[in-house]
Amino acid sequence: MEFLSAFVPGIVGKLFELTVQPVVRQAGYIFHHKRNLKNLESQLENLGTSRNQVQHTVNEVKRKGRNVDIDIH
C-alpha cells in the first residue's frame, strides 16, 4: 500500500500535465483569439516602423557613398 501512495501523486501529476494542461492551453487560444490578434497586429505595426527606420538609415548611408553590410541573424 505504501508503494501505491508513493507513486500515485506522481502518476496523477504527470497525467494532468500531459492531458489537462494542453487542453486548457488550446482553450485559452480560442477564448483569447481577439486579444492575440490585436497583439499580433500591434507587433506587426512596430516591425513595420522599425523596418522603415532601418531603411531610412540605409538610404542615408548609401547617399553618403558608403557600403552597407547586411548582417542578419
3D structure, described in words:
The protein has 73 residues and is mainly α. It has one domain. Helices cover 84% and strands 0% of the residues. It has helices at 2-31, 33-63. It is elongated. The model has no long low-confidence stretch (mean pLDDT 89).
Question: In a few lines, what is going on in this structure?
Answer:
By secondary structure, the chain is an all-alpha fold. The chain has helices at residues 2-31, 33-63. The mean pLDDT is 89.
Present the secondary structure layout.
Layout: H1 2-31, H2 33-63
SSE string: HH
**Assembly context of the chains:** single chain
Portion of residues in beta strands equals: under 5%
The major β-sheet equals: none
The total of beta strands comes to: 0
- Residues in helices, as a percent range: over 70%
Average predicted local confidence, pLDDT: 89
The poorly predicted ranges are none
Shape call: elongated
Protein name: Rx N-terminal domain-containing protein
Organism: Malus domestica
Give keywords.
2 helices; 73 residues; elongated; mainly alpha
